[in-house]
Description:
Blueprint: E1 10-14, H1 17-29, H2 33-45, H3 50-53, H4 58-63, H5 65-71, E2 86-89, E3 96-97, H6 101-110, H7 123-139, E4 150-154, E5 160-168, E6 172-176, H8 185-192, H9 198-204, E7 210-214, E8 216-222, H10 224-237, H11 242-257, E9 263-270, E10 275-277, E11 290-292, E12 295-296, H12 300-309, E13 313-315, H13 318-324, H14 329-336, E14 341-349, E15 352-361, H15 379-404, H16 410-428, E16 439-452, H17 455-481, H18 490-506, H19 512-530, H20 535-543, H21 553-581, E17 587-593, E18 595-602, H22 614-638, E19 648-654, E20 659-664, E21 669-673, H23 678-687, E22 704-709, H24 712-727, E23 731-739, E24 750-756, H25 762-767, H26 771-775
Parallel strand pairs: 1-7, 19-22
Antiparallel strand pairs: 2-3, 2-8, 4-5, 5-8, 6-7, 9-10, 9-15, 11-12, 13-14, 14-15, 16-18, 16-19, 16-20, 17-18, 20-21, 22-24, 23-24
Helix pairs in contact: 1-2, 10-11, 10-15, 13-14, 17-18, 17-19, 17-20, 17-21, 18-19, 21-22, 22-24
Amino acid sequence: MLTLFTDKPLRFQFSFHxxxxxxxxxxxxxxxxxxxxxxxxxxxxxQHPELRDGITTREQITENEALVAxxxxxxxxxxxxxxxxxxxxxxxxxxxFNKTQRFQNILNEAGPDFAINIRDFDEHQxxxxxxxIILSRFYNVHLDFTKPLFYDxxxxxxxxxxxxxxxxxxxxxxxxxxxxxVLTQADIDELIDNYDDLALWKKKFPLNAWAMKGFAIMSLxxxxxxxxxxxxxxxxxxxxxxxxxxxxxxxxFRSMFRLPDLKIGFSRFDQDEGYFNNKAVGLxxxxxxxxxxxxxxLSGEPxxxxxxDQTYFAGSDVEAMIKEYPESRLLKHxxxxxxxxFILAPVIKNETLLGVLELVSPRRHELNSVTANxxxxxxxxxxxxxxxxMQEMQNxxxxxxxxxxxxxxxxxxxxxxxxxxxxxxxGNMGLDYAFxxxxxxxxxxxxxxVDISESSLTRNKSVQTDLGNQLKALIAxxxxxxxxxxxxxxxxxLFDLRTFTDELLLNIRADTEQQIQxxxxxxxxxxxxxxxxxxxxxxxxxxxxxxxxxFHQERRNxxxxxxxxxxxxxxxxxxxxxxxxxxxxxYFERFKTDGIEHNLxxxxxxxxxxxxxxxxxxxxxxxxxxxxxxMEIEQFDLKSILPYPLGVTSLxxxxxxxxxxxxxxxxxxxxxxxxxxxxxxxxKKRIDKAHIKGSDERITKPGKITxxxxxxxxxxxxxxxxxxxxxxxxxxxxxxxLEVEDLQAVSGLKALRVGVLHDQNLxxxxxxxxxxxxxxx
Length: 777
């Protein structure tokens, strides 16, 4: 028969009745030569009633081939036959005839054994697609799941060209038959939710229960370049085996340059060691410019173009270039590999050379400075992909180091190194050696935090605002669509959306956001897509975009606020920490939460080569107080540009009794060692939310630094540090003395609280050296 798929809800009647009817009108109404021509053509057409009533066999097409061509002459002008790729067809079927000469030439070049089929198109897609046509024509239900359709047709030299398929359905009409069932809204709703159930679609749309009469004009557009680019992007993102991806990438480049034996190579540039290599970046490519493992043959003009000018370098005739540049190592090396033309393209990301893309051909002139410009549309995707692959490799390297070696602070590295050397030495002598625990005794702990105040409350408000706006827009759209007699359950959805809105105004729980979004995606979106297209619906989906939409604006503002604050606080403490490390080595670690926390341990056991004195403790305590104030001031200055003008609360814990810390191998970090020392960790975990004794006020307060202590001598010492910073105009003159409420397993704590003067000369503050402060000690 005439069709590719035997199971179909539409019974085809291949007919030219619409063209014939137009011809009859011309014959009756025209008084010139067109009338006579139409009448003559009609006389011959009427001798073949199947052209009007419906063609049923391929033989009828063959017998009427010349007459059909004449009948469709206006639609297939002879003057365009070598330009257009066009034919008569039925939608999505393999039957094609009355082809233009260019179309026929393309098929001839593909060879007699080539069977033309739509790419990635199967019976399931075809059946549901034709059912959607029926739903659109008879039930005004528009389910547009169509995607671009393509033919992949080989050329005589082995390349594959890609063509986009376009159908003109002006000459087709769909009609119901006596076998056509009537679908209910429940039937349609069931179909919408069950695309994968082909048996259900065949049940609701029985075979051949509707009729399609007429023909379609199929036009092809050569999209080889665009398709190759799309395939290239897909391949670069692929997680397939490297060999498969490499072969696919090479095919994409061959299609784009229309060179069947083009080869691609890549040489990676190692920034740390300053040389090229062929080590994998997720894909293993040959390199055509590497002489030895880490030595490129780049020199002279190619080296200048790649390394300095960062532009393409192309050679169209290697043999001729060798005569002109006989000393060129690059040209000789390429010629030895049978390469006659080439393009070298630097892969640049943020002005950093990642490597060199190499395109080579065994024939002269095929690759040159003109064809090199095709790389302009490829390189952005290639650069991002290679950069991503390198980042993934770097992350993998870091993960291996973390897993096998862990990240060690420089101040304690020496002790791990010594233990590793002991292990190696003992092993070389054939002795068993068990790793000893890494501990540091008699170290003084320091803890501090700068916490973003009201961060949880602000996030809840941002969620409430965004979700409230989103719900308001949905309610407006559905209210407008909720007409009398509507069967789409809009009223029920509106009730739920209004309930969500009321709940948002009252309270927001941990799962509120997820619950509402899940409801919108599973209940509301299918309903919106079943409604007739409207500008309001399109605008809604634009605003619902996670990255750019207005319905996520406040949450993005919140995340940006936290990110900017943490970035600023991190910059301050990291910069000042590098300075104080030069004074006396100590262990330091910080953590990003809703703000910044830091731990610091100092003592003779961490730096055994240096004499540890009490002056060192005084300096580090003053440093901690000063850097905490500086973070406060910098954050306050940042407020004016923050989407949310959040403040911070600052806290320092004084613990003047030395403790012991031990490296935990299972968790790969330092922790306190011994039962007594655990008291320090307990205090750390419980004081940040503590209240002033006898009140509901927190001990921490925006714009102030809270210093928690347990001994009177600790308070006296820190008052001296406070006076130094008051004299510098950093801290306020008023100091509050607080008692901290009793906490679980912790009592007797007290606190000093002092305000930070935020009105500072920031350039001077940033440039200030802490050394002058230390002189006052």
